Amino acid sequence: MTILYEVKDKIATITLNRPEVANAQNAALLDALDEAWTKAARDEDVAVIVLRAEGKHFSSGHDLKSGGWPAPEQITLEWIYREETRRYLEYTLRWRNTPKPSIAAVQGKCIAGGLMLCWPCDLIIASEDAQFSDPVVHMGIGGVEYHGHTWELGPRKAKEILFTGRPITADEAEKVGMVNRVVPRERLDTETRELAEQIAKMPSFGLRQAKRAVNQTLDVQGFYAAIQSVFDVHETGHGNALSVGGYPILVNLDEMKSKIK
Q1: Which of 2, 42, 178, 238 counts the highest number of beta carbons within 10 A?
Q2: CA distances from 247 to 110, 135, 213, 230, 251 (A)
Q3: Which of 60-69, 90-99, 177-186 is predicted with the least confidence, judged by mean pLDDT?
Q4: How much is the pTM?
């Protein structure tokens, strides 16, 4: 199973379960994740949603070799746009707007598409070994599909990680406000659970109103419109890749990620 799901004491725990490939996201994982998220959102016995991952790394991003892509000669921009709109934009916005608090527990590498799993969560707890990166400029693309970079990191730090492709540490992420807490790796699940239990004791209506207030404030500032418009900019990167000889760069990025141990 690509996703594990458990509810205990008003907390739904959703676990990414492809540790053998550093929790790379294929179509099956993303579809199952959305189903689990929707189930938790509808369950009246769930007050808080926790997203975590099995293994050494939170997520190495999109699985570009076995993720459900057709053969390179069959890929069209229309197909890419349709599939990425559904799985990379509609899913993430739905998770972000779920009217229940959510917490991501992140360890190890969180690369490119991995960001679109933790960023929609309301809170992020990172282990001391966590690293966050978006190296897709190497592919001729300006950033992962859920382009929360500016909001999460601030404009200059966002440009730095995009321009260089380098990862930022958990401590750096905490300093700019992207991460709420940094904890020892062996305490990640415990600290996340304790925070979820604390939140779950709060009145559910108050939590929903507080989340809605913060999210709406961001939307008034342009978050929602920016995510939508920058997604279209992202798709022009795919169009450029197709125009210069197909999609061999998909394999190149996977080769780069394959060095992750």
Answers
A1: 178
A2: 23, 17, 42, 21, 8
A3: 60-69
A4: 0.91
